[in-house]
Specification:
Layout (H helix, E strand, L loop, with lengths): L1 H24 L16 H19 L5 H19 L16 H4 L10 H11 L8 H8 L2 E6 L4 E3 L7 E7 L2 E6 L4 E7 L4 E2 L2 H8 L9 E5 L3 E7 L3 H7 L3 H23 L20 H18 L4 H9 L11 H16 L12 E5 L4 E3 L7 E7 L2 E6 L7 E7 L4 E2 L1 H6 L6 E4 L3 E7 H10 L3 H10 L4 H9 L1 E5 L4 E3 L8 E7 L2 E8 L2 E8 L4 E2 L1 H6 L6 E4 L3 E7 H10 L4 H21 L14 E6 L6 H13 L4 E5 H8 L9 H14 L2 E5 L6 H9 L2 E7 L8 H9 L4 E9 L8 H7 L5 E7 L1 H4 L4 H6 L1 H4 L9 H9 L5 E4 L7 H12 L6 E4 L2 H11 L3 H15 L2 H5 L13 H11 L11 E7 L4 E5 L8
Parallel strand pairs: 25-27, 25-28, 26-27, 28-29, 29-30, 31-32, 32-33
Antiparallel strand pairs: 1-8, 2-7, 3-6, 3-8, 4-5, 4-7, 9-16, 10-15, 11-14, 11-16, 12-13, 12-15, 17-24, 18-23, 19-22, 19-24, 20-21, 20-23, 33-34
Helix pairs in contact: 2-3, 7-15, 9-15, 9-16, 10-11, 20-29, 30-32, 32-34
């Protein structure tokens, strides 16, 4: 230590002598106030004296006009700045990649079309008609009438038969629901919107028009309305018989996915959905009479009871057990005859091989809520009960209604194709006639009107309140890029429930300054806070892809909470969740970087840059990793053709394929779509339905942009894009990642994935997808790169932040080893000071033994006595120059870029000039 002190004194003395001699040779006059000895950092000393010299030179130039003074001052300033300003070295740090304007802005272009085409577009906006071809619409247009309504004139009154579809050409119509004391305006439609009751259309097709009670509509201003009577559908459907099934499917699909699901999931309605919990049977069917007769005979023989006991027993507990003397064939014959009457068929013989009769003991769960095993049940004898899961405790089943002998259940799910809305359990010994979904559609293909009879039976048991809500709520489709509401601070008039698709909330802080606040996926509620608190819109919302929405007007919310105050607890719980989520988003948006907003992803499209990329192998591995976290399904053009037939992707089957894919997305947390190598119909479908697009490339090839990726720019895709670079597992570290990123424009993030050589081998993709469960390895390795990618896509990533502290940074290595020993993976690393150094070494090579060896060597060199001795300087701002540390960092990282690290990494520094935090996610890992 003595040697070190003597060396420092000599060094200090020599530097002071140099400074004294310089001051003597070049004297400078200081004022009294400047006698104070300033202390500077070395890099600021020359800049300070240079600026001071320029001020004195400027003050000396006092002659000439002002223009000449300014010119001379500028010349002096430019000349001095070349020598006195510190020259910064070229930095490889790249500017932060920000999303393009189309990512945050709505598409405001409006197609210009003739009036006839506009009429067709308005008709297609009615969701129950939106799937038909042009010839169908042309026939519909022949029956359209134009009606004019004055302000406050009734469109239809309370108690009248509402048998029309109204399309507003100009003006505005309002729908009202009568309560005990008030008339509530629950819906208001303007130009291009429609007003109709889809359930009434079923009645009109069946020629059983019913008046609407407590519901009326009138024009709030002078309006021109296009009127289409639903009775014309009988003639049109006879001309287009295949339209029967499609229309009924869409009506029931709307009823289950929007009306029932919204009332149950978001408002908490259960028993209110049914017309009555136990309804009286006014007239017995022939089968019931036969069962009652058998019951009388058995009861009379055993107990001597009178026949009237059967009727009394029927009214209290209507369970009709079938006598042991009955032949099963007789029961089967009566069952198919009853079903034939229900279906509207003249001959029951067609049902012989389509129906089966089974017996169930009491307490048997026949159908579970959410089940995809869809069947139609006819109660031959006994009693069933419909159940719904409690919102507070999913293990608790709440009874909704009773299903008695002669009733039919299951028609709603069988026709709509949606999972079962109710759970069904036997309440007594039951005999049920069962029709499978496939068999029912075989019947419908021969007798098209069967679908209307089954649909009417399926919806008639629901309460009037459900039908009123169905008429007041709207089923909207927001096309990709269009704004749900684009004017921030506009008055909120409705909330939206995302049924499928994805929305993006964009916050505008200043004119031209936008940032993504949040993204909303399936099941999310948008706009509830503004509706409930009577505030204006706080953000603008655009559709990332085609999004299916349930629109609930604020006036409808007021009607529901006045008629059913018990829903307030559910609304308050949902409101609290939305407020907390909004506050967290606002706080996190302060320091948010423009990274991927990966949360609640439902659909992921996987796209290859070229045909040399092993896309099928990568997709199968990703499916395996995702499936270990959450239920995931994988589809490609091969699997769709194998499952749905070779013509599944034809234009005529577009409605069926979209409906089927919607069901798959509802049944799985994540759906993977493997795109074709070329821009085919299936590839376009995948891109349109994707919440996130994975662009897969072989990192060992030359950086390039794929042909399909070029087409994405023309499609104005707003889904977030991720770049995935594949490497052989023998690769020491990635290279040229920045070039890939520069070529691909804006991507949310990028990932490096290592695979064994077997994944890169070209195999039959159809065979790999068909037998993917056998190909995948069964071991669960959470430390692989593909597992890290799967956790990033499911928002289950694990991050670690290493702090500073000099020598205490050596403990970070022990933490990494402990995490690895306990099987805890690390998916993203951040660090500051020595923590940034250790974190960078770990991301460069995640092999723990190598990390320990590298860290030991680095800390040994940092603690070297001679290295610190020769790095000493006069202690004006520091004891050491830092050159020794820079040499150490250069020996470890050399020319490594942050983008070339295996694990996502960033470090944090402080900008002492502006006193702000800086986050470094790109550029050279080492800056000298």
């Amino acid at each position: 230590m003595g040697c070190i002190f003597i060396t420092w004194v000599i060094n200090r003395f020599m530097r002071l002598n140099v400074a004294t001699s310089s001051a003597t040779k070049y004297p400078v006059t200081f004022s009294r106030k400047s006698s104070f000895n300033y202390r500077f950092r070395k890099r600021d000393r020359m800049l300070f004296y240079g600026r001071k010299l320029m001020r004195k030179v400027t003050s000396a130039v006092i002659n000439g006009d002002k223009k000449q003074k300014l010119r001379k001052r500028d010349r002096v300033f430019r000349f001095a700045s070349k020598f006195l300003r510190p020259q910064k070295k070229d930095s490889t740090a790249r500017p932060i990649r920000r999303p393009p304007d189309a990512f945050l802005e709505a598409d405001t272009s409006l197609p210009v079309s003739p009036k006839s085409v506009q009429l067709l577009n308005m008709l297609k906006s009615i969701r129950i008609l939106g799937h038909f071809e042009i010839p169908f619409f042309l026939d519909v247009c022949k029956h359209i009438e134009t009606k004019r309504f004055a302000a406050d004139q009734f469109v239809f009154k309370d108690g009248e038969i509402h048998d029309c579809i109204y399309i507003v050409e100009s003006g505005r119509l309002s729908l009202f629901i009568k309560d005990e004391k008030f008339d509530f305006e629950v819906k208001s439609v303007g130009r291009g919107d429609s007003l109709y009751c889809s359930l009434n259309i079923l009645d009109m097709i069946k020629n059983q028009a019913r008046p609407m009670k407590n519901v009326f509509a009138k024009a709030t201003e002078e309006s021109v309305v296009l009127q289409l009577k639903s009775s014309v559908f009988n003639d049109i459907f006879d001309k287009y018989p295949e339209s029967w099934t499609r229309t009924v499917q869409i009506i029931l699909l709307r009823f289950q996915r929007i009306t029932l699901a919204t009332l149950y999931r978001y408002f908490g309605f259960t028993s209110e959905l049914s017309k009555t919990s136990i309804r009286a049977v006014s007239k017995l069917s022939p089968l019931q009479e036969q069962s009652c007769k058998d019951f009388r005979e058995i009861k009379s023989e055993n107990e001597g009871a009178t026949p009237e006991d059967c009727t009394a027993s029927e009214n209290t507990f209507p369970t009709f057990g079938v006598s042991t003397t009955d032949d099963d064939s007789d029961i089967f014959q009566v069952a198919i005859e009853e079903l034939a009457k229900l279906f509207g068929m003249k001959e029951a013989s067609f049902l012989v091989d389509k129906v089966k009769v089974e017996k169930f003991e009491p307490g048997i769960m026949i159908v579970r809520q959410g089940s995809n095993e869809l069947q139609l049940f006819y109660v031959v004898s006994g009693m069933l009960e419909l159940l719904l899961e409690s919102q507070e405790d999913p293990d608790v089943l709440l009874p909704i209604s009773i299903v008695q002998t002669g009733d039919v259940i299951g028609g709603l799910s069988v026709l709509s194709g949606e999972p079962s809305f109710f759970a069904v359990r036997t309440r007594s010994f039951c005999q049920l006639a069962i029709v499978e979904r496939k068999s029912l559609y075989e019947i419908i293909s021969e007798y098209p009107r069967v679908v209307v009879n089954v649909a009417s039976t399926a919806v008639e048991s629901y309460s009037d309140f459900v039908k009123e809500f169905d008429m007041a709520v709207e089923w909207e489709i927001c096309e990709s890029g269009k704004a749900l509401y684009k004017l921030q601070n506009e008055q909120a008039d409705a909330l939206y429930v995302v049924l499928s698709g994805r929305l993006r909330s964009v916050l505008t802080r200043e004119p031209g300054t936008r940032e993504v606040l949040n993204e909303h996926g399936r099941g999310d509620v948008v706009g509830l806070v503004e509706i409930w608190t009577l505030r204006r819109r706080s953000t603008s919302v655009i559709a990332i892809r085609d999004t299916e929405l349930c629109k609930i007007y604020a006036t409808l919310m007021n009607f529901i909470k006045n008629k059913h105050p018990q829903v307030l607890s559910n609304i308050i719980r949902l409101l609290g969740h939305c407020i907390i989520e909004q506050q967290q988003q606002t706080v996190s948006a302060v320091h948010r970087e423009p990274l991927a907003h990966v949360s609640n992803l439902n659909t992921i499209a996987v796209l290859a840059v070229s045909d040399e990329v092993p896309l099928t192998g990568f997709t199968v591995e990703l499916w395996n990793a995702l499936n270990s976290i959450t239920p995931t399904e994988l589809f490609s053009s091969y699997t769709l053709q194998d499952m749905l037939g070779p013509t599944a992707l034809d234009k005529v089957n577009e409605y069926q394929i979209i409906t089927w894919l919607n069901q798959q997305e509802d049944g799985n947390s994540i759906v993977l779509y493997q795109c074709d190598v070329e821009l085919t119909t299936f590839t376009s479908l995948c891109i349109r339905r994707a919440d996130c697009i994975l662009i897969v490339a072989n990192g060992e090839q030359e950086p390039m942009v794929g042909e399909i990726e070029k087409e994405l720019e023309n499609l104005t895709v707003r889904a977030q894009k991720e770049l995935i670079l594949l490497w052989h597992d023998s690769t020491d570290r990635p290279r040229r990642t920045a070039e890939w990123l520069d070529l691909h424009g804006w991507v949310s993030s990028h990932y490096h994935v290592r695979f064994r050589d077997r994944v890169f081998k070209q195999r039959n993709p159809r065979r790999m997808l068909r037998y993917k469960e056998r190909i995948i390895r069964r071991c669960d390795n959470r430390h692989t790169d593909i597992a890290r990618l799967a956790r990033a896509l499911t928002s289950t990533s694990i991050g670690i932040v290493f702090g500073g502290g000099g020598a205490r940074g050596a403990a970070h290595v022990g933490i990494i080893k402990a995490l690895k020993d306990h099987g805890i993976p690390v998916d993203i690393v951040a660090g500051v000071s020595i923590g940034a150094f250790v974190g960078g070494m770990y991301c460069l090579d995640s092999d723990v033994p190598k990390l320990i060896m590298c860290a030991k060597q680095a800390f040994k060199e940092a603690a070297s006595f001679w290295a610190r001795l020769f790095d000493l300087t006069y202690p004006v701002s520091a004891l050491f120059t830092g050159k020794a540390l820079n040499r150490l960092l250069k020996s470890v990282f050399n020319d490594v870029e942050i983008e070339d690290l295996w694990i996502p990494y960033f470090n944090v520094t402080t900008d002492i000039t502006s006193s702000e935090m800086r986050v470094h996610r790109s550029g050279m890992l080492l800056h000298e």
